[in-house]
From TrEMBL:
Its cofactor is FAD. Residues 1-24 form the signal peptide. The keyword NAD does not apply. It comes from Gossypium mustelinum (Cotton). This is FAD-binding PCMH-type domain-containing protein. It is found in: Secreted, Cell wall.
């Protein structure tokens, strides 16, 4: 089926299939429906952005974090809805369902495959940019955070009230809470406290029937599913109640860079045996990338060993000297700071002033493709050498692999506790990232990262080769974006992300959204 896009006429007739059944409806009817339900004309102008609106492009682009999906040929939404009240969300669901538009929910817009703001069928975006409230209650050590807030806004909100509480979520401060918590959320506190979703204790969700549900009213099955079972699948999560975790007033971060000439391969080889067994208070990660060599005009590959101890430098140095002397950690590699400053440190930003955490656009946007692996057995030295050497290739000029140690708390949580199953026995997770600036070269770079992924097949987890849902990779397989997707078809990617939890996710989806209203290329399909 072919659709007209871009030059949207207000009364264009479109057709869209909802789980097999084809609906024929008009864009004009959709707008009419939404305007009637919102009713107040000054609110309408702040909530509905059609393609004729002068602010349409800036609203669309404000939360696009992958330039790969903002080219002139990228399909654009018929309208962007930026709700200010829960009733606006309910109305958007009602009108898109009744007038045949697919809904894409966007919080921070960091989806690696752009599925929160791109679709191949007529669609509208529900953009939660106005749902950004963060309410921190230090007495009860909890916070309510709306989905459109970023992790940075949450971190800042906590730190502006207390230096001794934190939240274990992702490293980058511009990612949206809505998408991040829908897929898990691993960061520097992960070895100590597990994932962000391990600390969600309530949520506010609008389901496919427009009902507003809390933990009690949605029931434990659905509450289990939304904590990592994927975004745009079970409903629109408006807000999350999270339990905060203790952090010391001072943490110590460090970076030690080793390149190929400085034994990077051997040290990384050793790191694999140690990092997951270190005390929970110590997180380490290795970032592999191409850098200039000390020989003029030559390149080498650097393994940058970074980490954070929930404690002081005087505790860190003897700990590393004892457990991982090969690293040669010295005091000058270390800096003491507050937990909230460490977020900026790992994000490659100056650690002062911390209010940069409120800047949703603090990081540059380029074209990106990512893939992930979970590794359960240490790689051989030869294997690591081959992996590192791939970074000497031309296409890897702006490539990086971030390798994060697991173990600690992650080893203690059962695989089926929540939808995210990659727990006990994982040594580390690798996120492979390739970036480019000229869209015409996209194929070359994507081809490189696919070759890197093929190379890593013999070292990664097997049957299934596990992958992290938060770094979506459509190479792993997709749903039919129109019509029915069978369990078998979706299992191809679903088992990689969710292992045996996939089946339960499908059962819950079948119960709560049998018509598959909330859908995207890798949302859980109903039976
Ligand atoms: P976005 O708004 O694009 O949404 C992502 C998905 O969730 C889409 O399918 C969307 O429809 C759905 N969705 C969004 N809001 C929803 C809502 N309120 N209700 C229902 N569905 C909703 N991960 C990690 O674990 N640790 C890390 O350190 C990082 N770091 C990182 C850095 C950078 C630069 C990027 C690009 C990504 C990461 N990630 C990460 C991955 C990140 O967690 C993942 O991309 C999240 O889905 C991003 O959430 P956003 O809300 O920003 O995305």
């Amino acid at each position: 089926m072919k659709f007209l896009q871009h030059s949207v006429l207000p009364f264009l007739i479109v057709t869209l299939s909802l789980n097999g059944a084809t609906l024929a409806h008009s864009y004009g009817d959709f707008l009419h429906c939404l305007s009637l339900r919102i009713s107040n004309s000054s609110t309408i102008s702040k909530v509905i952005y059609t393609q004729n609106n002068p602010s349409y492009s800036s609203v669309l682009n404000a939360s696009i974090h992958n330039a790969r999906f903002s080219t002139p040929t990228t399909p654009k939404p018929y309208a962007i809805i930026t709700p200010r009240k829960t009733s606006h969300v309910q109305s958007t669901i009602y009108c898109s369902k009744n007038h045949g538009f697919q809904l894409r929910i966007r919080s921070g817009g960091h989806d690696v495959e752009g599925v929160s703001y791109v679709s191949q069928v007529p669609f509208v975006i529900l953009d939660l940019v106005n749902f950004r409230e963060v309410k921190v209650d230090t007495e009860n050590e909890v916070a309510w955070v709306q989905s459109g807030a970023t992790t940075g806004e949450l971190y800042y909100g906590i730190a502006s009230k207390t230096q001794t509480l934190g939240f274990p979520a992702g490293i980058c401060h511009t990612i949206g809470i809505g998408g991040h918590l829908s897929g898990g959320g691993f960061g520097v506190l992960g070895r100590k406290y597990g994932l962000a979703v391990d600390h969600v204790i309530d949520a506010k969700l609008v389901d496919a029937n427009g009902r507003v549900l809390r933990r009690k009213s949605m029931g434990e099955d659905l509450f289990w599913a939304i904590r990592g079972g994927g975004g745009n699948t079970f409903g629109v999560v408006l807000a999350w109640k999270v339990k905060l975790v203790p952090v010391p007033p001072v943490v110590t971060v460090f970076t030690v860079n080793k390149n190929l000439e400085q034994n990077a391969t051997k040290i990384f080889h050793r790191w694999q045996y140690i990092a997951h067994k270190l005390p929970k208070d110590l997180f380490t990660t290795v970032w592999v990338m191409k850098v200039n060599s000390s020989q003029v005009g030559k390149k080498t590959v650097q393994a940058s060993f970074r980490g954070m101890l929930l404690g002081g430098v005087d505790e860190l140095i003897p700990l590393i000297q004892n457990e991982f002397p090969e690293l040669g950690l010295a005091k000058e590699n270390c800096t003491q700071m507050s937990w909230v400053q460490s977020i900026l440190y790992f994000g490659g930003l100056p650690i002062q002033p911390v209010d940069i955490l409120l800047n949703r656009h603090a990081l540059p946007v380029s074209s990106v493709k990512e893939k992930t692996d979970f590794v359960r057995e240490p790689m051989s030295e030869t294997g690591i050498e081959g992996f590192m050497n791939m970074f000497l290739e031309e296409e890897a000029d702006f490539a990086i692999t971030m390798i994060e140690a697991f173990g600690g708390r992650m080893d203690e949580i059962r695989e089926n506790e929540l939808p995210y199953p990659h727990r006990a026995g994982i040594l580390f997770e690798s996120t492979y990232i390739v970036q480019w600036t000229n869209e015409a070269d996209a194929g070359t770079y994507i081809n490189w990262i696919r070759r890197l992924y093929s190379y890593m097949a013999s070292y990664a987890s097997k049957s299934p080769r596990e992958a992290y849902y938060n770094y979506k990779d459509l190479d792993l397989g997709t749903n039919n974006i129109i019509g029915y997707t069978s369990y078998e078809q979706a299992s191809v990617w679903g088992l990689k992300y969710f292992k045996n939890n996939f089946k339960r996710l499908v059962q819950i989806k079948t119960k709560v959204d049998p018509m598959n209203f909330f859908r995207n290329e890798q949302s859980i399909p109903p039976l």
